[in-house]
Amino acid sequence: MLVFVFGILGIIPFIIPHPAVQNVDEYLRNNLLKILAAFALILGLGSLLRVHIDKMKRKGQNWQYSWVLILTFVVSAIIGLFGGVNGTGILPTRIGSFPFDIWTIYLNVEVPLGATMFALLSFFMASAAYRAFRARSTEATLLLAAAFVVMLGVLPFGNRISPHLPSFAQWIMDVPNVAGQRGILFGVALGMLATALKIILGIERSWLGGGGE
Amino acid sequence: MISVLVAGIFTLAPPTNVVVSDTPDDGGGAITIEWQLSADDAQLQRYEIYRSEDGLKYDKVGFIGRGRNAYEDETQDRTPYIYKVAAIMDTMRALSEPSTPVMSSAQWLDRNKINIIITVLLLGGMILYFIYRARRGRELYVRKISGLQAIDDAIGRATEMGKPILYCPGIGYIEDIATIASLSILGEVAKKCGQYDTKLINPHFDPIVYTVAREIVKEAYTDVGRPDAYDPDSVYFVTDSQFAYAAAVDGIMLRERPATNFLVGWFRAESLILAETGASTGAIQIAGTDQVSQLPFFVTACDYTLIGEELYAASAYISREPLLLGAIKGEDYGKIIIVGILVAASILGLLTKVPILQLFR
């Protein structure tokens, strides 16, 4: 019943622009959802700590790293809660010219570490491309040929081979590629509609832990 | 001096036919002003829009470049406003006649979305019809989806090898349909894990998804009569940082060496990082997402990939629940209708002068 009511409440603001409806929608999305997310975050963090404390107790594989996680969790939580975002809280977050407020930690630890992981993607792409371009079947050979043409087409060298190559490469990207993507997107859109209907009408409940009945 | 001289011999033509109306299909607070361009439009610098509540004192509320003949002004609802538009060239200004007073108000229906509503009702009605047919016991055929047929084999392999199964639902939130579809598949996978007594590892990116997934897995183990086999630590929250999550899941793959990896849900750039790491460990990988940009990575690095709608069909396919299968049938007929409309619209657009594209805007 709740899913049905909130499902309908989610659809109505899409077609009714009146502030009476939009304000309710905004309240649900911006206030109610944030409160729910805050409670879920507490549960989530509890789960994270429980898993790692349990691992330390069991002396599981690489249990020492769990200490690193818990220590950094506690330290950053204290700095964030009492030091303020930019070091404006009650806890001093600067030693001389060395700041360690939560924003500085985020910019200097979290962001570079994320960028490092992201950078790995280029190597993974190379290995995935190698695997994809092995011409073991007709489809893989077609893929290899298309990729080869597109890669040549976007390089200045491609234009020297033939002035038609860049436009042909662009055609591959604009026509067969987009046609394929749109075909998938039509299916996705209809699948979303069907899933939303099934959930709103209570036909599909498996995502709530119940059966399909 | 020159501009004063020019102003003396040159009279600027003002904009004419100033038509003011409440901006349609909005939530109020806006009035649209339209006018006929000044005869001297090519020489102008801009048009300035003036507004008055009493028709005596006008305030400038905005300006727009030459060649443009419409402006949307932010207003207070239920207050009548009168507008004038001025053509501006250097120091010269030619004011239009005042408009009639107009008030803005909020509308209860966005008419621009009527075509979407009709489409949704049509397709939704078709899906509901097939669900109704399925409810009456009609047999429905659904084609084989190899990625879903492989689930049993993949779990069986993990059981035989005595290794765990990793189920990664991606970095979507609970409002993403792909995440919901993934949670439905998680329930079915968890049931099989419970039956075969195979360890399940289910790390999460979003705390809300984590709490829902925990209940799903717990329920699945209870459903197959193995509540004792449920390990609360098998479903856990990791982090809500995209690449930190990728690093954590990569670590799990390398340390725990799962026999089977499910990468099913909503993914972004981390998809290939996860899929390639999983492939390097020799695990069977079943992936699925509705993110078109990530599909090539999964197709390349995984053994089976659920492409787009196959992900949504998974729950029905695995459970063979007739009502859910009916919805898939409805989707298929929806696709036939869309393809039919596209073909008809293309033919009409090519062979006639019917403004067919306007129908889809």
Description:
The complex is a heterodimer of chains A (213) and B (361). With 213 residues, chain A is mostly helical. Helices cover 77% and strands 2% of the residues of chain A. Among the domains of chain A are: 60 residues; 70 residues, no CATH class. In chain A, a hairpin with a 2-residue loop joins strand 1 and strand 2. In chain A, helix 5 packs across helix 7. The longest helix of chain A has 40 residues. Chain A is extended, with a radius of gyration of 26 Å. Chain B is an alpha/beta fold and 361 residues long. Chain B contains 10 helices and 13 strands. In chain B, the strands form 3 sheets. In chain B, strands 10-9-8-11-12-13 form a 6-stranded parallel sheet, with helices on both faces. In chain B, strands 4-3-6-7 form a 4-stranded antiparallel sheet, with no helix packed on it. The mean pLDDT of chain B is 89. At the A-B interface, helix 2, helix 4 and helix 8 of A face helix 2, helix 4, helix 5, strand 10 and helix 6 of B.
Essential attributes:
heterodimer, A: 213 residues, mainly alpha, two-stranded antiparallel sheet, 8 helices, 2 strands, 77% helix, 2% strand, extended, B: 361 residues, alpha/beta, four-stranded antiparallel sheet, 10 helices, 13 strands, elongated
Look at the helices and sheets of chain B and give the structural class: alpha/beta
The poorly predicted ranges of chain A are none
Q: Total number of β-strand segments of chain A?
A: 2
Strand order of the largest sheet of chain A: 1-2
Rg estimate of chain B, integer Å: 31 Å
| Tally of DSSP helical segments of chain B | 10
Q: How would you sum up the major sheet of chain A?
A: 2 strands, antiparallel
What is the N-to-C order of secondary-structure elements of chain A (H for helix, E for strand)? HHHEEHHHHH
**N- to C-terminal distance of chain B:** 52 Å
The fraction of residues assigned to DSSP E strands of chain A is under 5%
Kindly state the number of beta strands of chain B. Answer: 13
> What amount of the residues of chain B lies in strands?
15-25%
